[in-house]
Amino acid sequence: MEAFKLMRELKANFEQESIYLPREKGLNLLESTLENDKQISAKCRDAKVEDLWSLTSFFGYSTQTFVQAVNLLDRFLAMMKIQPKHLSCIAISCLHIAAKLVEEECNISSPPDLIRISQCKFSSTDLARMEKIISEKLNFQCKAVTAFTFLHLYHEITLLHTSERKSSMSLDKLEAQLKACLCRIVFSKAKPSVLALSLLAQEIEAIQSVDMLEIAQCIQRHLKIADGELLYWRELVAKCMTDYSSPECSKPDNKKLVWILSSRTAQNLHRSYYSVPELPTIPEGGWDESASEDSCEDMSCGEDSLSSDMEGPSSPPHFPQRPSALHSYRDPAYLGATCPF
């Protein structure tokens, strides 16, 4: 009965996953955007996802919260025309939405804490308004079917049908590998079911389990995933894991962090937080009928006025400063040189 229930749940999620995929045209636009442009680039997006990983660890949020936040971020960026100065507010809003969907209410950090720890230049009111915009633009379909969903189902199914020791496959290791993949925008194009199966197959190959390999192949046939599609993503996953495991790769920690501040640092943070001007209210506009089908919807506002032009001032766009606290998370001296998986 348990096996039947899991397979039925697997099939139901498989039929729903396409609803929550980011628009591929929008992702392609992000990948083709140069860093000096006035739009979000893929590199800028990837850096922000790494920051979300660090914040997830800092506040003790689960992997599911992080994966949900990245899904919200990618879906929103793939359909909207965003200026870099708004990215921090959008990313933190996605994390807060995801936390409210996944975490226990007592464990959800307050908006002021999120803003203070991330050192972003917007207010709690801006955060609430951005959350509303994101939810509306995504048609309130916030709780998505993600690769995390499939990874847990695959893991349960595999352990249910194998006679090998349950400790032979670490779910924590699979989750860490999934988080590493999501820090690269290319994996946002993968179907969650295929990405999760690629990670599972990679781990099964590493532990050399014939029994588990047969189960993975059975799952593949059940979901009718083509061999070519699975092979393509397995190769990308393998390359990502190789790159991520190298000593040259800086990586966020995967443990809950404790932030210890000197009195001087705490005083500076306190002063800078309360001296930050509010992010101007972002006006919502309709789709630009004159734009091509491939263009993203504009969501623009000036830093000093509500009626600034879509492209912003003639000077180079202002990229929000990366949080100083988050920088320390990726410092090898702080984290150690070990890979979380």
TrEMBL record:
Chief location of this protein within or outside the cell: cytoplasm
GO-annotated biological processes: cell division
Domain Cyclin-like: residue ranges: 50-136
Keyword set, alphabetical order: Cell cycle, Cell division, Cyclin, Cytoplasm, Mitosis
Acidic residues compositional bias, start-end: 286-301
Gene3D superfamilies per the UniProt record, alphabetical: Cyclin-like
Region (Disordered): 284-327
InterPro entries, alphabetized: Cyclin, Cyclin-like_dom, Cyclin-like_sf, Cyclin_N
Pfam families: Cyclin_N
SMART domains from the UniProt entry: CYCLIN
Compartments where found: Cytoplasm
This protein's GO CC annotations: cytoplasm
Protein task: May play a role in growth regulation and in negative regulation of cell cycle progression.
Family per record: Belongs to the cyclin family. Cyclin G subfamily.
Annotated protein name in UniProt: Cyclin-G2
Taxon lineage: Eukaryota, Metazoa, Chordata, Craniata, Vertebrata
